[in-house]
Amino acid sequence: MSTPTLTKPDGAERTYPAYSRNPLARALLTREAAVILALVVVFIYSMGNIPFFDGPLTIFNLSKEYAPILLMALPMTLIIITGEIDLSVASTLGASAAVTGVLVVEHDVSVPVAAIIAIVVGSLLGALNGFFIAYVGLPSLAVTIGSLALYRGLAEGLIQAKRISGFPEGWQDWPTERIGDTQYPNILIPTAVLIVAFGVLLHFTRFGRGIFEIGLSDESAHFSGVNVARTKMILFVLSGAVAAFAGVYVALKANSVATDTGTGFELKVIAGVLLGGVSIFGGRGALHGVVAGVLLIAVLNSALQLDGQGSEVIQIIIGLLLVGSVIASNFLPRVRALLPRRKVIDAPPSVTPQTPGAGESSER
Amino acid sequence: MKIHTKRFAAGAALAMVASLGLAACGSDDNGGGGSDSDATTVTFLPKNLGNPYFETSDAGGEKAVKEFGGTYDEVGPDTAGPDAQVTYIDTAAAQGVNALIVSANDPTALCDSLNAAREAGTKVVTFDSDTDPECRDLFINQATAEGIAKVQVEMIAEQIGDEGEVAILSAAANATNQNAWIDMMKAELEASHPNIELVDTVYGDDDDQTSFDKTAALLADHPNLKGIISPTTVGISAAARYLSTSSAKGKVALTGLGTPNQMRDYIEDGTVTEFALWNPEDLGFLSAYAGKALADGDITGKEGDTFTAGDLGEFTVGENGTVLLGDPYRFNKDNIGDFDF
Q1: Are A317 and B23 in contact (CB < 8 Å)?
Q2: Average pLDDT value for chain A
Q3: How many pairs of residues across A and B have Cβ atoms under 8 Å apart?
Q4: Looking at the partner chain, which of B31, B78, B96 has a beta carbon nearest the beta carbon of A308?
Q5: Which residues 26-45 on chain A approach chain B with CB closer than 8 angstroms?
Q6: Is the model's pTM score more than 0.90?
Q7: Which of A263, A356, B200, B248 has fewest C-beta within 10 Å?
């Protein structure tokens, strides 16, 4: 996925001029900072102008609905930085929710045991993706499109056409109970722990450094001592495990599992990651940007719904935002890179006498 | 140049996000209804938008809300699914709407959100499809099994002159509701219509082609057959399609449960005289009034509470917080033009 020509601008950005600025300016002039600023602006604007946005339910609702998206976005960030992608996360979530439901409701397994089994199953599903991508060398887009259908099929096979509901009371309430008197549901505790864990893994370890190097170039990463295949394998296993954890949460939260549980979540996850400044070509991105990206989508969604906008308006706005952010982070640098060359090409015709004729003919 | 690029990208992203944020907030006035005025705010949340059945029911709701001077709003997902409904319930709760009228895509998955909304002061009425009783204040039931069984027996008795052989074309052999209705119809036939003989019950599996073939087989097996009851919308339209082109048209009566859009052609060409279902418009109308009665504190949803729903008259809350719309509604060539679902 990581074509050297496309990642060149990103790599080239880290040149001396960039580092000649002072540290504060460097921290503020990043895409991550732009997303965080946008999040703050939208949030403050909504607090002041959207009716009921400042109510006690907004943050709570937003947290409980977007926690699974945020969770799955963490390993997805690492995977996309290596230049790969995992489209099967929502189906893994569905399969693990189905496993949890069948074990707890139909076989009376306790919730923690069922959750561990579901996470093991999720890890195995991730490992299957990882095997084909890392060791067989197949493109992740093709492999995970296949497993998107395959894992959803597994979920359907497990629960067939019916719905499973009736989780034990205490467990069913826990994920959405509030922490003390705050607006924050309990699920934010494991979410925060995982955000920190993935942040440390990506930005403060050798393993994380290797992830960026793979994204810039598989080969050069290999020759500089990074175990490319093992790194990718680990990332896909992590993705499966976290998606499975999110699946357990979704099953408990809804007290219901169906064949369509979590359908379409993969697109929300990828949208959040890309909006957060991660390059789809790999090699660049940061976890704090992704957290802000997911939250930005969540806050916009919530604000627009409270404002009474229909789902079509919300989808259009979030779609535009996403397309715009991809253009901003990938297209503009290339346009800029082309500009000097254009000037050179444009210059000679402007002094030659043929130019007016050429202009007229193009006008006709 | 490179620094410029980065700064430009960041700036462009920021400017765009800010402008979108502003655009998002441009139309506060058409917001989904708030509790800032005295008007009762009623929000309808059907299983999905763009479904003619729910468009009809919600139009009934809107009529009722206008009648009592409240604020009406309709929200919903594009495709039926509980996950999508949850966000709309959460939003309605945050907006503090007075009454939320829901047709539930899942009996349990919506419970958390519905109960959070109720804690925040929103009254929850379900219609068409119920949730678990502890997650809502009232359920508006479109029809009871007894009512459905009785109306079909009455219609077939009227259409065949209260005597002769009849048969039933059902859905799947193990469909719980179908079998309950069939048992009640048998009891009703024995009790009140001794001259009508039920000669056969066949199963079309709610599949158009199977139902069509089973109708053909019924007519071949029972040459003296005078009527067919099909208590399933798929069955009745397939049977009507067969009858409309066969020599039995006009000789064998057909009735049951159907929707006006599926049956319109067969009513108009005389294949079918009359069939039944409930009236979704009345269902929405009653639901809206029930929501208002709850929001105003006139009723709490306990058994025995009574409230008035405009022209539909007075209703009493029954067991498990259920309100019955009434007897099924009969569709015939005089009124079928009024419905589009």
Answers
A1: yes
A2: 85
A3: 181
A4: B31
A5: 29-31, 33-35, 37-38, 41-42, 45
A6: no
A7: A356
Residues of A whose CB is below 8 A from B176: none
The answer to whether A13 contacts B2, with C-beta atoms less than 8 Å apart, is yes
| Complex ipTM value | 0.74
Partner-chain residue, chosen from B9, B20, B95, that has the shortest CB–CB distance to A321 = B20
Residue B13 contacts A, CB cutoff 8 Å: yes
| B41-142+280-325 and B145-277 share one fold | yes
Closest residue on chain A to B92 (Cα): A306
Per residue in B137-157, pLDDT (tens digit) is 999 999 888 999 999 999 999
Nearest residue, CB atoms, A65 vs list B5, B31, B87: B87
Q: With an 8 Å Cβ cutoff, is B34 touching chain A?
A: yes
pLDDT at A215 over 80: yes
Q: Does domain B145-277 have CATH number 2.60.110.10?
A: no
Average pLDDT over residues A111-138: 96
Architecture of domain B41-142+280-325 in this structure: 3-Layer(aba) Sandwich (3.40)
Q: What is the pLDDT of residue A289?
A: 95
Position A68 confidence tier, pLDDT thresholds 50, 70, 90: very high
Contact residues on chain B for A45, CB-CB shorter than 8 A: 21-22, 25
Predicted confidence at residue A22, as pLDDT, reads: 65
Averaged pLDDT, A331-343: 63
Answer yes or no: is pLDDT of B31 > 60. Answer: no
DSSP-derived 3-state class of residue A318: helix
- In chain B, residues 142-161 whose CB comes closer than 8 Å to chain A: none
Chain A contacts of B206, Cβ < 8 Å? none
Q: What are the boundaries of each domain within chain A?
A: 30-335
**A30-335 CATH fold:** ABC transporter involved in vitamin B12 uptake, BtuC (1.10.3470)
- Residue B201 pLDDT: 94
